[in-house]
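The passage that follows is intended for readers who have already worked through the single-chain material. We present the inputs for a multi-component assembly, then the predicted structure in tokenized form, and finally a short commentary. You are encouraged to pause after the input and sketch how you expect the pieces to fit together before reading on.
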Amino acid sequence: MDLDRSPLALPFPAIPAIGGVTLRVARARYKEWDRCDLTYAELAEGTTVAGVFTKNVCCSSEVELGREQVLLGRARALIVNAGNSNAFTGYRGREAVEQIMAQVAHHLGCEPSEVFVSSTGVIGVPLPKDKAREGVATALAAPPCSWQEAAVTIGTTDTFPKGAVATAVVQGRTVTIAGIIKGSGMIAPDMATMLGYVFTDAAVDPAFLQQCLSASNESTFSCITVDSDTSTSDTVLAFATGKAGNAPLGSFDDPGADAFAAALHDVCRQLALLVVRDGEGAQKLIEVRVSGAVSDDSARRIGLAIANSPLVKTAIAGEDANWGRVVMAVGKAGEPADRDKLSIGFGGTWAAREGLPLVDYDEAPVAAHLKGREIDIEVDLGLGDGRATVWTCDLTHGYIAINADYRS
Amino acid sequence: MDLDRSPLALPFPAIPAIGGVTLRVARARYKEWDRCDLTYAELAEGTTVAGVFTKNVCCSSEVELGREQVLLGRARALIVNAGNSNAFTGYRGREAVEQIMAQVAHHLGCEPSEVFVSSTGVIGVPLPKDKAREGVATALAAPPCSWQEAAVTIGTTDTFPKGAVATAVVQGRTVTIAGIIKGSGMIAPDMATMLGYVFTDAAVDPAFLQQCLSASNESTFSCITVDSDTSTSDTVLAFATGKAGNAPLGSFDDPGADAFAAALHDVCRQLALLVVRDGEGAQKLIEVRVSGAVSDDSARRIGLAIANSPLVKTAIAGEDANWGRVVMAVGKAGEPADRDKLSIGFGGTWAAREGLPLVDYDEAPVAAHLKGREIDIEVDLGLGDGRATVWTCDLTHGYIAINADYRS
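Having made your guess, compare it with the prediction:
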């Protein structure tokens, strides 16, 4: 099926080349697609790597292997297959991944453990080894491509390519951090959402890179949801080639480490929000800000209960200021809440304060706000200092059309 | 909006009169409805009561009061308001409930604590006291009505009235247990789902009635979900008038107690399934049977993860045997599961056994099964003896239309 471009799409940003990163794409023909579906990123010798992965216990071989590879901290290549997730395919799926790792390692003269593989698409169909072998061979020999071409190639039901870039000054040198990501459905928190890849020319020790990535993940990828469904293949990898020439960052005590971590966080946040902007069927981007909870973690859980509520999401789709559904979602979250201290607002206007609907509540500014593309829901629990922000999209006929009207 | 009758609707059963129960309905005009919206059940002196209520912490005054009243174990009346849930309305909402309790108690010459009140409808609008007062006065003077009329009157977005009946022989006497229920959206487990009322002429001590009701709730109302959203008003009450003349049942040691508990369970199960059959937008009834889990509780959580997955529910709506989505839902449930021991089937046909898609999997019988109205999903974890069955419906354009296309 052809999907219309999301009305929340953003133009692909201008991303400069990153020293030590070369991108190539090819056609492995995993599906009947008239497009490239295999992405290859060649990484300079000495590149360090960090990663966060799905917590789904039925994860793919790619995720199982990736978790082990990340512990070694070194990367020379990334292969991304689109159109087949290779999840729940047992030993046959694992053999296909190991074949790709061996093939690329042989080409580069590196260890197979330095070759990272991700796959995305249908669950339960072993990745065909012959198509993978030919596709990888083609990619290894292909001319370099742009960031945007790579971002298009890793996508599946995505309606626009997604990229982000930020810079930081580290020890007097400007380092660049660029990322691409794919994802639209089967998006839920409590994991590293979907397939995302961040590349930087900074030199960063793998343990510190992992520390920065894990911390950013907590408030970016783990704070978005499209449909509460946690994928079996979600992966975010960060690669640092070291080509900017700074002294390797090993801890927050090192000069420039704060700036680097902030820029990495910025890229992660941009990428996470791009996924929500391309949520299946999305017409509106919803930001849920929770304050006054007993802890930040409690605030996040309450925010996600709101963001995952089908009734809240359909109310926003209907431009309906149905704040009673927000009350319901707060109450079902399983977190401390006191009905009589709860306040709820939309777009800066309170509809209810401290457990009571406002007598002089003027729905006009709220109605105007809800007609827009970017919706703010504010919830104050009135209990403590815990706060969190989570993002989701509305639930529309488009989601049903994508997931029910067409056979997989 | 006018909703079409659910294709999964069942005819209203023939329910006999229950000694000690008189039903009446009236128009309180809480909404612009051309129908009765206030139900009154008068209960004989000596009636005992038990109840289970929503675990939503933002619950209504009706639920707060009902929890306290049930502890006293005695009931003389039930009032159900349809069209306004009176939830999140603070002291003003509570005053309206207390007014109704006082008005009915004065009429019957009983304690206000013996008058149970439920309300269902929009959240955040205080129940108008004047309409309630007039409606109750009309109901108190109204002629008796049928079970079906009462079942229609407690409904809101329900597309058909829901009732169930069973009998048991207790100490040589036949006792009857009848129930009515309403519910269609904002239906999720971990509580007593929606508004349901069970009446029996058996004589039952309130503590034992509570024990039987709570036990039945665990595997009936708490095992259904329409949209994962837990309402603020959910209530199931059981009333025992004692008019059958048996010696009061006080424990499972009493003759006939087992038969009574089994019949009560039967009625609860029938009522719970009727709610799913009227799930908003439902086109198919889905039964998820989980076996081989490490415990029954773990099996139930896994079943609910499947039943609440938008991607599983839309796949069933699309008659798509997309068992990979079931794998995903098992994996995200947060319960012990081993991908390589997992088996998944539809309608008696295994699609995957022990972590691998079946090589000779014949999709034809599965495709035929999925075209039907009643869909079975079977999951075997291969880990232990834990098992559970949960029920849900598919997720269709109808759900979006009901909840997004029309302003509340």
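Commentary: Chain B has two domains: 21-277, 285-404. Chain B touches chain A through 68 residues (CB under 8 Å). How closely did your sketch match?
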